[in-house]
Amino acid sequence: MSTTITVTSAAELNQALSQATGGETILLAAGDYGKLVIKDTQFASNVTIKSADPSAQASFSEVYLSNTSNITFDEITFDYTYSLGDKNHVNKFQISHSRNITIDNSVFDGDFASGTGTSADGTGFGKGLVIRNSNNVDVINTEFHSWWKALGAAKSSDINFSGNNIHTIRSDGISLGEVQGVLIENNYIHDFGGAAGSNDHRDMIQVQRSSGTGSSDIIIRNNVLDMGAGDYTQGIWFGGDKSLYANPGDWHYNVTIDNNIIYNAHANGLSVHMTNGLSITNNTLIAVPSQQTGGVAIPKISVTGGSKNVTIEQNVAPAILGHKTQPDWTVQDNVLIQNTNPSAPGYYDNIFQYIATAANDGYNQYGVIAGGTIELLDAGSSLVDNYPYDYNSWVGGSSTTVVNTGGSGTNTNTTPTAPSTGTTTTTAPDSGTTTAPDSGTSTPTAPSGGAPAPTAPSGGASAPTAPDSDGPQFPGGLGGFFGGTIGGGNTGGGGGGQSSPLNFGWLSQAGLSEPSSFDFDFSGNDAVRTPQLPFWGNGNATPNTFGPGIFLGGVNTGSDFGGDRTDSGLGGIANDDDVQFVDSFGGFFGDFWG
Questions:
Q1: Which of the chain's ends, N or C, has fewer CB atoms near its CB within 10 Å?
Q2: How high is the pLDDT of residue 243?
Q3: Residue 186 φ/ψ region, left for φ over 0, alpha for ψ in the -120 to 50 degree band, beta for the rest
Q4: DSSP letter string over 317-339?
C-alpha cells in the first residue's frame, strides 16, 4: 500500500527516507534541501521524491546516489552554484553502482563561471548529471542548461534519455562511454555556447571510446539537434579514440541512428567510427549558412570504411562518406543536397520551405516542398512533416530563459524560500528487503519508454569476433610517430595562425602490413572564410597540400577529451596522442581512423 509523506526540511526528509521500505511518495515543500546522500539502500519497490507544488519546485545543491535502487525524483530542481576555484568538470549530481533510478519532469540548473579572468567567464560550468556503473536509469522530460557538459553515462546499461531539453551548454550535451542498451529519443538539443580558446570539443551527442572499449545496442532516434542562435558543434559523434580494428572489444555493435534532424555548420554532422551493425536511416542534415553562424563546414554523414554490416538509407544530407565497394554495406535512396549552386540538383531553395531560420527566429525549421525527390523516396526525418511547431512544447521538458549569461546563472525559475538545510544521509532501512544492486553488465533489455530492445542486424553483428582487417591499413614495423609531413600555414581564423605541421606517414600502433589509404574532405573556408568548396585527396601516405588557406593542423596532446585529445580551434586540426586518427574539428575529415 502506498504512503504519502509531506516534509518541509532536510531533517524531515532524512527521517522519511530512513523509515521508507518501498512504495512511499515523499512530497517536498518548496525550498532548498541542500546535499542529499543515499548510500547502500535498496528499497523493495519504488520510492518517489517529489515537489509538493510543481510551480515552486524543491531543490538540492548536491545529490549522490551510491549502491542504491528504486528511487524516482519527480519535479525537482538540481541547482548548482558556481564558486570561484571550481574545476570545469566539477560534478555535484552523481548516480553510481545503482539501479532502477528515474529522474522525471525536473531541471538541472547549472551556472556560469565568473571572476576567472578567462574566456570561461559567462559560460556554462560543471557537469550536470553523471551516471557510472549503473543500470536501468531513466532521465526523461527534464531540462539541462548552463553546464560545461550536461548529461553522461559510463560503464552502464539500460539507459533511457528521452524527452529532454538540453541547451546553453559549453561542451557536450550527451556523452556516453562503455554502455549497453541505450535509448536517446525525442530530445531537443540546441544553442550551445563555447568559451573561446578553451579547446572545448563541442558535441551534441557523443559516444566516447577513451579507453578503447566500445559500446553496444544504442538507439538514437527522433531527436532535434539545432545549433539555433548558438555556436556550431559536432552533431552525433562516435569517435575512434584508442580503438584498434584488430581488437573485437574496441568495436561498437548494433547502433541505430534514425529519424533525427540536424541543423549545424560543422563537417561532422553524423560521424561513426568502427562499428559492426550500423543503421543510419531517415535522418536530415542541413547546413546552416556560414555567413549567419561563422560555421566552418557543411555537415555530412561519415562512416569509416572498415565498419561492418552498414545500412545508410533514405537520408537527406550534403554528402555521404565512407562507402566504396564494401559487400556488407547497403547505401541507397539517399538525397544529396547543397546550398552553393542554384543550377545543380538538390539546391536548398528548390527543395526546402524556410518556415523558421535562426537568423530571424533563433531556431531552424526547414519544411520539404511537396512533389520533389525527398517526398518521392520518403527520405529524411519525418519530424519536419508537422512544421511549424514549438520545439520546447514538443520535447516535454521545460525551457528556462537564461537572463544572466555572465554571472550567477539567474533564470526565470521561481526561487523558493529555504527551510532548514543540511546533509541528508540515508542508510539501508531495516526492512529485510535489501538486495545487491546490479553490476551494470547485464544483458541489455529495452529501456522503459516503450522502445523495443535493440537486436542484432541481419548481418550478424551481435557476435563480437575479430573484424576483417580491411579498415585503414598501415605498413608493418610502425615504430615511429609519423614520417613525412603535410605542411602549410593557417592564414587566419579561429586557430590563431598556428603553423605546426601535421606529421604524416606511419601510425605507431596499427601493426599491419598493407599501404595506407586515405580520403579527405574538408572546406576551404576553415581559415579564410571563403565559400565552402570541397577538396579531395586519395592515395598513400605521401606529403601533399590541398589548397590555399588549408592547414592540416598541428599535433595536439592533452587531457580534455577523455584524456586523449584536445582541439586546436577553428583553423586547426586535433590529433589523438596515440596518433590513430585525425579529428575533424575545424572542418577537416579523415577517413583513416584506426
A1: N
A2: 86
A3: left
A4: ES-EES-SS-TTEEEES-EE-BS
d(CA 400, CA 408): 14
d(CA 544, CA 436): 59
Give the closest residue to 232 by CA, choosing from 584, 496, 550. Answer: 584
Quote the pLDDT of residue 125.
87
Query: CA-to-CA distance for 550 and 571, rounded, in angstroms?
Result: 8
User: Residue 409 is which amino acid?
Assistant: G
Closest CA to 163 of 145, 139, 136: 139
pLDDT tens digits, one per residue of 21-41? 999 999 999 999 999 999 999
Question: What per-residue confidence (pLDDT) applies to 417?
Answer: 30
Distance in angstroms (rounded) separating the CA atoms of residues 317 and 236: 14
Rama region for 460: left / alpha / beta (φ>0; ψ in -120 to 50; rest) = left
Dihedral sign from CA coordinates of 43, 215, 266, 499: positive
292 pLDDT band (50/70/90 cuts)?
A: low
Each residue of 266-286: pLDDT tens digit?
Answer: 889 999 999 999 999 999 999
In words, the CATH class of domain 3-426 is: mainly beta
**Coil, helix or strand at residue 290:** helix
DSSP 8-state code for residue 345: T
Q: Is 290:296 a contact under the CB 8 Å cutoff? A: yes
301's CB contacts (< 8 A; 6+ apart) are: 269, 270, 271, 280, 283, 285, 312, 315, 317, 319, 320, 321
**Backbone torsions φ then ψ of 10, nearest 5 degrees:** -65, -35
Instruction: Give the pLDDT score at 241.
Output: 81
* 139: amino acid identity, one letter: V
Alpha carbons 261 and 418: distance in angstroms, whole number: 42
Residue identified by cell 589509404 is: 517
Q: What's the Cα-to-Cα distance from 183 to each of 136, 461, 512, rounded to whole Å?
A: 11, 19, 36
Find the mean pLDDT for residues 240-265. Answer: 94
